[in-house]
Amino acid sequence: MAGYQLSVCAEMVFLDLPFVERVKRIHALGFGVEIWGWANKDIDALAATGARFTSMTGYLSGNLTDDDEIQQLLQSAEASLAVAERLNCPALNLHGTGLDNKGLPVKPVDVVTGAMWLKAADTLRKVAQLGERAGRTFTLENLNLPVDHPGTPFALAADTLALVEAVKSPALKMNLDLYHAQIGEGNLIELIRRCGSAIGEIQVADVPGRQQPGTGEINYRAIARALHDVGYQGTVALEGWASGESGAALQQFRDHFTL
Fold it and tell me: Which residues of the chain fall below pLDDT 70?
């Protein structure tokens, strides 16, 4: 038996249902639940579903490198921690920069300088300190540049790994998104082995199309075996669209990660 737990992003499935009903449906099917931004959601209603929330976005605005934006990031991370406590959600997700509602960087970056790297690491240390005090973990997600998130700094899994290793805090881990990594880097099983204990969460969707495992080119059955072999004990979350009926897509996801 695998030691990891399966979760599903409620933003991308059962799209015909109100958001709280999506959460209830995912929970009823035996999965954990993930959400993106919390500012537009009824937190009390979400908490009342009894769902097991595994991850949520950990900031509302700001970025890792600009002084005024850093303050926004830290303030909204602190506010996000309060929401995470209400939902009993252990992990809060970050990106290399603030993203708009289309997933594009609010402030696109062409060249990431050494000074930006140092500032990002310093900001993440401060974020990790917030997480340590609250007993929760922030995760830094890799993104792909060619398809979904052009202009995002610190986008590769190699970048997020370097920052997590530089901070050296149990409250900052990688959100290793294998959909993004396949587009940006490939060699996924070796990437999992390289990242090892730095991984706080795995997110999945197939390539191309960002749909459930089994709809594209990634051998997710081999990924599941690799995660088992390295002793991964965390969450594997489907952050992808359903190719057809959402319930069937979630079953296909479960089938690919059942050993």
Answer: 1
